[in-house]
Design goal:
By secondary structure, the chain is α+β, with helices and mostly antiparallel strands. The chain has a domain of 137 residues. Helices cover 51% and strands 12% of the residues. It has 6 helices and 6 strands, in the order H-H-E-E-E-E-E-H-E-H-H-H. Strand 4 and strand 5 form a beta hairpin. The chain is rod-shaped, with a radius of gyration of 39 Å.
Amino acid sequence: MSKYLDPYTDFGFKKLFGEEANKDLLTDFLNSFLPEKHQIETLAFRNTEQLGPIPLDRKAFFDIYCEAKNGEKFIVEMQKAKQNWFKDRAVFYVTFPIRDQAEKGLEWQFELKAIYYVGVLDFIYDENEARKIFLRDETDPSRDATDPGRDVTDHSCDATDPSRDVTDKSRDATDKSRDVTDKSRDATDKSRDVTDKSRDVTDKSRDVTDRKP
């Protein structure tokens, strides 16, 4: 039987950092990368099983979940197998302690304590590739595979374009019809003007005839 623990196994990691007797090891581990103003004095372990608002909602199980004296919370996970959506999983996990901070009544003004997610990974994590997935980078050639909804939206936009083209043509036809109508009105006005002038000539001719002896 081996007398050493492998910290990259679930059992070894929780045995090393997740027991009350070894709480000082976890405190030193977290303080090693926390800024000075956020250094931990004491920790209290919390329930690692997180339930949804209703029984049908998905649960979350943390490897280690603890709270500092100032109310800041820490989720510590050891991930041995590679997971492509690791950051998305981390975001999902931190929603539970964020939601728990919501207080009923009008006194709570949405002030949130800090939540730290610490991932200890036993695989190579490609930060650039993960950033493309996490930010849904549109220049990523795998965008269609990672975000099929956008492809559906693009096709939907294409489908609506023909109707817009028909509408534009209809508007052009209407504008041309209005232009023809305006020209017809101009012609009518000119005809009226010629008629008025003809009446003036007729009136003058009658005046001359009346003056003759």
